[in-house]
Write a structure and sequence with these properties.
Protein name (chain B): Transport permease protein
Mean pLDDT of chain A: 87
Radius of gyration of chain A: 19 Å
Membrane topology (chain B): Multi-pass membrane protein
Low-confidence stretches of chain A: none
CATH superfamily of chain A: P-loop containing nucleotide triphosphate hydrolases
Helix content of chain A: 25-40%
Mean pLDDT of chain B: 86
Subcellular location (chain B): Cell membrane; Membrane
Oligomer: heterodimer
Keywords (chain B): Antibiotic resistance, Cell membrane, Membrane, Transmembrane, Transmembrane helix, Transport
InterPro entries (chain B): ABC2_TM, ABC2_TM_bact-type, ABC_2_transport, Nod_factor_ABC_transporter
Strand order of the largest sheet of chain A: 6-7-8-3-9-10
CATH architecture of chain A: 3-Layer(aba) Sandwich
Number of domains of chain B: 1
Number of helices of chain B: 12
Bound molecules: adenosine-5'-triphosphate, magnesium ion
Largest sheet of chain A: 6 strands, mixed
Shape of chain B: elongated
Strand content of chain B: under 5%
């Protein structure tokens, strides 16, 4: 079976700056994978390459067997992207935003689809108001909702909860779980370790241009020396794993 | 996928037209300058200008129409810049749509908005005494030239819309365009201008286009000048289109 997302030795630099230095990643169909990385690790760069917005310098990247470099239109018909910053039209109402996306995906009955999606994301009440009057959390949910229209097989979410308050984060998490429950493959990037713990089936850590580790939370926890488990007397948190793997010593905290 | 080019463009055009309908002040503000100029030149300077025609309004109106377009198209740069900044262009580009439909929608929006503005300016001109006995064919020719000029200048405006780093930068390019009609036959005949200025004025496209419009309104033969005017419009259109589409492919994805 071909993986939903397949990346092999992918490289990208901006001038002198080598951002991706040979990324390898395979993501099975229907799973939620969290891509963890610090600021500037290259998460957005990777997601933009996978969604055909940016050409890579070398290496392979394909979505359901479709090469992102040569089969752009087919890849775009398979995926959908929610970028790092909410990309909604503030002049339009929430419903109009959803209708717009449904029309651009050439679906029949865009109005009915918009109403269904509003209901699914508990946005029906706000749906008739211009998005400029919405809160940040509502916009982000709309942003994600727009990505679901047309049932793409693979969804990229670039830092879906950055800048949101705890309540809004939980709402977005519910939205992501809702998407994944329908069998959609989700690749989400995040800097929040608890978010990865909460949502992801598998976690990949991007650091210094490579995927350092990739596995389930339990597999990642096994990476730490057992000695630490004894002292702490509980499972190491993902934060411990993350800091250990990227080799940052945060002292005696 | 180019198969959806027309439907995608129509959907995105509908979106931009909604933006305009919800902030009609953008059209009103682009209208203020040309109408103020028309009032100023007709009622303040007009008496002192020898245009060689009976009615100065009739002499002036073609230039004001060109000025209206020059002032109107800067909003395309502004809107496109905001769309790129807001990330919505990136969203569109990651969707299975005809990619160039994003630009065409903005260009056609500009065409609709400018035709509305031109209509208003024409009505104000009529109220101020502009008269023309031109027949349907001449009016059609006027409309054709104005449409072509709007398309050409809007494609020019797309370029700063794509490349600007700030809102001010996106709109600033329009100032030289607005200035061009002043060094042309728009307000005064060129033969009173000093040598180099006159040479520039007589050979720049705005003069050619305005002179043709003026003769079409005055029921005079346009001769070969209409081809020169069309060539200017088409030439600018072709160059701006190619540069804009290239910039769109490159700059936005970098
Ligand atoms: N267009 C560009 N030109 C030059 N450098 C760039 C460009 N885009 C990104 N970079 C640099 O590439 C590196 C990786 O950027 P990227 O946005 O992929 O990181 P990220 O992991 O998404 O970070 P963040 O968590 O801050 O969103 C950064 O150092 C960034 O400054
Ligand atoms: Mg990022």
């Amino acid at each position: 079976m071909t993986s939903a997302i397949h990346v092999r030795d992918l490289r990208k630099s901006y001038g002198e700056l080598d951002v991706l230095r040979g990324v390898d990643l395979d993501i099975a169909q229907g799973s939620i994978v969290a891509l963890l990385g610090s600021n500037g690790a290259g998460k957005t760069t990777l997601v933009r390459i996978l969604s055909t917005l940016l050409p890579a310098d070398s290496g392979e990247a394909s979505i359901h067997g479709l090469d992102v470099a040569t089969a752009g239109p087919q890849v775009r018909a398979t995926i959908s992207l929610t970028g790092q910053f909410a990309a909604v039209d503030e002049v339009l109402t929430g419903r109009e935003n959803l209708v717009l996306v449904a029309q651009l995906r050439h679906l029949a009955e865009p109005g009915r689809i918009a109403d269904e999606v509003l209901a699914r994301f508990s946005l029906t009440d706000a749906g008739q108001r211009r998005v400029s009057t919405w809160s940040g959390g509502m916009r982000r949910r709309l942003d994600i909702a727009m990505s679901l229209i047309g049932e793409p097989r693979v969804i990229f979410l670039d830092e879906p909860t950055t800048g949101l308050d705890p309540q809004a984060r939980i709402e977005v998490w519910q939205a992501v779980k809702e998407v994944a429950s329908r069998g959609t493959t989700v690749l989400l990037t995040t800097q929040y370790l608890d978010e990865a713990e909460q949502l992801a089936d598998r976690i990949a850590i991007l650091h210094e241009g490579r995927i350092l580790v990739d596995g389930t939370l339990a597999e990642l926890q096994d990476l730490l020396p057992p000695a630490e488990v004894e002292y702490v007397q509980k499972q190491p948190s993902l934060e411990d794993v993350f800091l250990a793997v990227i080799g940052t010593d945060r002292g005696a905290a | 996928m180019t198969t959806h080019f027309f439907s995608d463009t129509a959907v995105l055009l509908g979106r931009s037209l909604r933006h305009i309908a919800r902030s009609p002040d953008t059209i009103i503000s682009t209208l203020l300058m040309p109408i103020a100029m028309m009032l100023l030149f007709v009622y303040v300077f007009g008496g002192a200008i020898r245009s060689g025609t009976e009615s100065y309004v009739s002499y002036l109106l073609p230039g004001i129409l060109v000025l209206t377009i020059a002032s109107g198209i800067s909003y395309t740069a502004f809107r496109l810049f905001l769309d790129i900044q807001g990330g919505i262009v990136e969203r569109f580009r990651s969707m299975p749509i005809a990619r160039s439909s994003v630009l065409w929608a903005h260009v056609l929006t500009s065409l609709v908005a400018n035709l509305l503005s031109l209509g208003v300016v024409l009505l104000v001109g009529l109220a101020m005494g502009f008269r023309s006995g031109a027949g349907p064919l001449a009016w059609l020719a006027v409309l054709g030239i104005l449409v072509l000029l709007t398309l050409a200048l809007t494609w020019v405006a797309v370029i700063p819309g794509l490349t600007a780093k700030s809102v001010d930068g996106a709109s600033a390019f329009a100032y030289p365009l607005i200035f061009l009609p002043f060094i042309s036959s728009a307000f005064v005949p060129t033969d009173t201008m000093p040598g180099p200025v006159r040479a520039f004025a007589e050979h720049q496209p705005v003069t050619t286009i305005i002179d043709v419009l003026r003769r079409l309104f005055a029921e005079q033969p346009v001769g070969s000048d209409i081809w020169a005017a069309l060539a200017w419009c088409l030439g600018i259109l072709a160059v701006a289109y190619v540069v804009a589409v290239r910039t769109y492919r490159g700059a936005v994805s970098a």
